[in-house]
Design a protein that fits this description.
Keywords: Membrane, Transmembrane, Transmembrane helix, Transport. The protein has 457 residues and is mainly α. The protein contains 19 helices and no strands. The chain is globular, with a radius of gyration of 21 Å. The N and C termini lie far apart (43 Å).
Length: 457
């Protein structure tokens, strides 16, 4: 059975070497599956005799339920203990993967993806808090860097793994491959993860429902922003979502331990770090979506070449994340992340204004700059959020970190769609310019944290 240590100073070196891979294996599983299904959507539509618009819900259902569940699961982790919620997530995700692999219809597949999204949120939301329990406080940056490394690896591997599987078998194996990985992750986590104490708090059901309604309305509304003829519907959904959000905030103000981490957002450094995270993930999404169109339509690169040219970005993070983690444990994290965002903005600008006859090498080294900049931003920024919260609010800090990333990516996707609707093929260039501006603004906000910390000191 897992030890029941107080975990005030983390686990010992030997126990940590066993527990950490157990945690990160679950993270790898969830992130790999979040990206791997995109590649197979045309094949799924053909095999299940469904139209493309309906098939997109294989991806959207996962992302929507994931976003809606983050904050309630963060609160649940604080109440029941992070280990228990994480184990439920791994077990449920593995079982839902079997449901996806056996799906006889699109409706069945979408329902199984909803279950996957819920259980994936259990894992992703809880992992930063679990790592904080496992590592001693002075190694917080190293803990977050391992998480960043795992996410980068799974993101980089997703399209390649999907391509190999679809070459050798049908799309069902994309989900069936999760079964052995999930069983290993479940067994290792159950055996080696330390017990984490729960806290006395009530589960805020009305708050959870208001949170779900807010995110559902806003995310679906943002999804309609770039669709011609749906601007009125999109505006109505977003306005309704903001209205529900106002009710949610008023409801949460009276709670001692709110579902929304309002107590953490009152800390200037944490609030600025969250805003910086939203801006940076918006910039990343704008670039990830806009760059393939730019490469294929403007620079006449093939689909395969486009994939290879973008790969250096997530791949270099694998090497940068551990270095950034070690440096953030020794130097000021706010300055490091501001430096990273400055490099990120330079890389994005160099891609936005590529020379007309740019070579593959010229594109690749610019991608490397973006990866270096993003890597030096991501780990120090997340360290500030996790380590800046009280230890008993680690679950809320995890939720804040996850929801900032989710909101940033959702807003980024909506802005890309709107830019393509407004500018047509020139929308890809507009997306890269917008990404550059957002990264630069994020760097400015990041520097404000230095002043905030100085005042607090």
């Amino acid at each position: 059975m897992a030890p029941s240590a107080t975990l005030a100073e983390g686990l010992g070196v030997r126990a940590r070497r066993i527990a950490v891979p157990s945690i990160l294996l679950g993270t790898f599983l969830g992130n790999l599956d979040a990206s791997i299904a995109n590649v197979a959507l045309p094949t799924i539509a053909r095999d299940l005799v469904a139209d493309p618009a309906s098939t997109v819900w294989v991806v959207n259902a996962y992302q929507l339920i994931f976003a809606m569940a983050v904050l309630p699961l963060a609160a649940l982790g604080e109440k029941l203990g992070y280990r228990r919620v994480f184990l439920f997530g791994v077990a449920g995700f593995t079982l839902a993967s079997l449901g996806c692999a056996l799906a006889p219809s699109l409706s069945w597949l979408v329902a199984a993806r909803v279950a996957q999204g819920l259980c994936g949120a259990c894992m992703s939301t809880i992992v930063p808090a679990l790592l904080r329990m496992v590592f001693p406080p002075h190694m917080g940056g190293r803990a977050i860097s391992l998480l960043a490394l795992t996410v980068a690896l799974s993101t980089a591997a997703g399209p390649s793994v999907a391509a190999v599987i679809l070459t050798l078998g049908d799309w069902r194996w994309l989900f069936a491959i999760n079964l052995p990985i999930g069983l290993v992750a479940l067994g290792a986590s159950y055996r080696f993860l330390p017990r984490t104490p729960g806290a006395e708090r009530r589960i805020d059901v009305p708050g959870a429902l208001l949170n779900a309604a807010t995110l559902a309305l806003i995310i679906i509304g943002l999804g309609h922003v770039g669709e011609a003829g749906h601007h009125g519907v999109a505006a109505l959904q977003i306005v309704l979502g903001l209205g529900v959000a106002t009710v949610l905030v008023r409801h949460q103000r009276s709670r001692r331990t709110p579902l929304l981490p309002l107590d953490l957002m009152r800390v200037p450094v944490l609030a600025l770090s969250s805003l910086t995270s939203v801006a940076c993930y918006m910039a990343q999404t704008l670039a990830y979506v806009g760059m393939p169109f730019l490469l294929q339509h403007t620079f006449a690169r093939s689909e395969a070449a486009t994939g290879l040219l973008i790969t250096p970005w997530p791949l270099v993070i694998v090497f940068i994340a551990p270095l950034a983690g070690r440096l953030s444990d020794r130097f000021d994290s706010a300055r490091l992340s501001a430096l990273g965002l400055g490099v990120f903005a330079v890389g994005l600008a160099s891609l936005a204004w590529l020379p007309a006859h740019a070579s593959d090498w010229g594109i690749a080294w610019r991608m490397v700059i973006c990866g270096v900049g993003f890597g030096f931003f991501q780990t120090p920024n997340n360290r500030i959020i996790m380590m800046g919260a009280p230890r008993e609010r680690s679950g809320a800090a995890s939720g804040l970190m996850t929801i900032a990333r989710t909101v940033g990516m959702t807003l980024g996707a909506a802005v890309v769609a709107l830019l393509f609707d407004l500018y047509g093929e020139r929308g890809a260039h507009a997306a890269m310019v917008s990404a550059t501006i957002l990264a630069a603004l994020g760097g400015g906000v990041s520097l404000l944290r230095v002043r905030a910390k100085a005042r607090a000191g």
